[in-house]
Amino acid sequence: MSTHELRHRGAANLNRFIGLVLAGLLAVAAPVAQAQTCSQTVSAAIASLETHCGDLARDSVCFGYPPASAHLPSKEPAASFIKAGARASALELGSLQTGGLDAESSQWGILALHLSANLPQTYEGPGLIVLLAGEAAAINDVRLEDAMAIQAPVSTVALEKATLYRHPGVIPEAVAQAEAEDFLLVDAFDDAGQWLRVVNDGEIAWVEAEKVARLQALNGLPKLGLGATFAWQALSLSTSADFPECAEAEPWIAIQAPIGIGVSLTINGVDMRLDSMATFQQAHASALSMTAHRGKATTIFGQTVKQSESIIGILSKTGALLDWSGALKGSDAEYARGQRAQAALNGLARANGWAEAEAYNYPASVIHIVQPGETLYGLTARYETDVALIIAANGGDDSLSLLAGMTLIIPRPGSGFAWRAASSASSD
User: Fold this and answer.
1) Under DSSP, is residue 163 helix (H, G, I), strand (E, B) or coil?
2) What is the pLDDT of residues 304-350, one digit of tens each?
3) ω into residue 77 within 30 of 0, thus cis?
4) Left (φ > 0), alpha (ψ -120 to 50) or beta: where does 416 sit?
5) Which residues contact 192 (CB under 8 A, 6 or more apart)?
6) Closest listed residue to residue 246, CA positions, set 45, 10, 5
7) How is 27-58 classified by DSSP, letter by letter?
8) Spatial distance between the Cα atoms of 54 and 367, rounded to a whole number of angstroms
9) Which of 204, 227, 325, 401 has the most crowded Cβ, counting Cβ within 10 A?
10) How many other CB atoms are found less than 10 A from the CB of residue 277?
11) pTM of the complete model
């Protein structure tokens, strides 16, 4: 073989080797590039809510990013929305659906549903917010002709000095006092008809019905409670159980109640009360998971899901919830989902001038009234938290002494018991 032929063969082998190396590098790089494209698409979809969904009126829907569609009971087929910012009246819709990740067209559907629910007309903040993201769907289980509406409040007067409470009940939380002959705006009864909802100045409280003048106009007020038939307050949720390789593009549904108020809902046939924000996702075809990211959710079956906890519901073939598991601490993946959902909700809040909120991976701080004989060590163990956090939340003084009757802030209960001497904790 000539020298020229050897050089030619060597060059060919070298080129083949370089080609194999480049092919290997591209094979490694391809998933990374795909993940970046996926992440960018989801980020663009979430940002689109803030860009296009400002001035979102109650009982309306804004389509933040395609693909998305809506079904009107009187029309076939479903209307598809390809333009970000398209609006529709929720009072005319029977169902909503968003599409999953489409890598070729860089699409990932997301929409926002803003509902009046059972909130008073005097309340100026955001109503009940429902976000659908990825391959998700929501069906309005309230027939349009059956949907109730909260009326304008009726003015009455307190017959005697009366305490106003945050919620109706046997041991409710007092929030204000009404003096005899004070005017009160009321717009609803509780289920039993024993309490009236007071909505003065947009604030919401409850007073015992027997302590106000029983005017004839009060007889027409609705009763509020579990199973109330307000538009979209009973809804069936579903998501795809097939998740994309990119975690950011997983499907989910987020529901956020007005902060500090809470709303009664019927989810897939089960009555529950939601205080703040939770996400829903199908773990597989016959199971719907719910994670509370702030506040708590309580089902009619008696389960309470505290923030940073999750619960699994077993679905029938028709999508109805048959039973719930016990609540467990949410996973890191569920916490990350809550962060993404809250980011989308906060973008919508900025666009509309509403207050932003936070998703938690642990229970919020609680207030504890110190009892005789209680110690810092005992409280740290009882609330499963860190002594350094308790000290920092109560002035940061390592000589913190507990006195019976004092108010103590307990931060991050349930985040993990960790006892260290006060002196070492303060020097960390």
Assistant:
1) strand
2) 898 899 999 999 999 999 988 889 989 999 999 999 999 999 999 99
3) yes
4) left
5) none
6) 45
7) HHHHHHHHHHHHHHHHHHHHHHHHHH--S--T
8) 37
9) 204
10) 27
11) 0.77
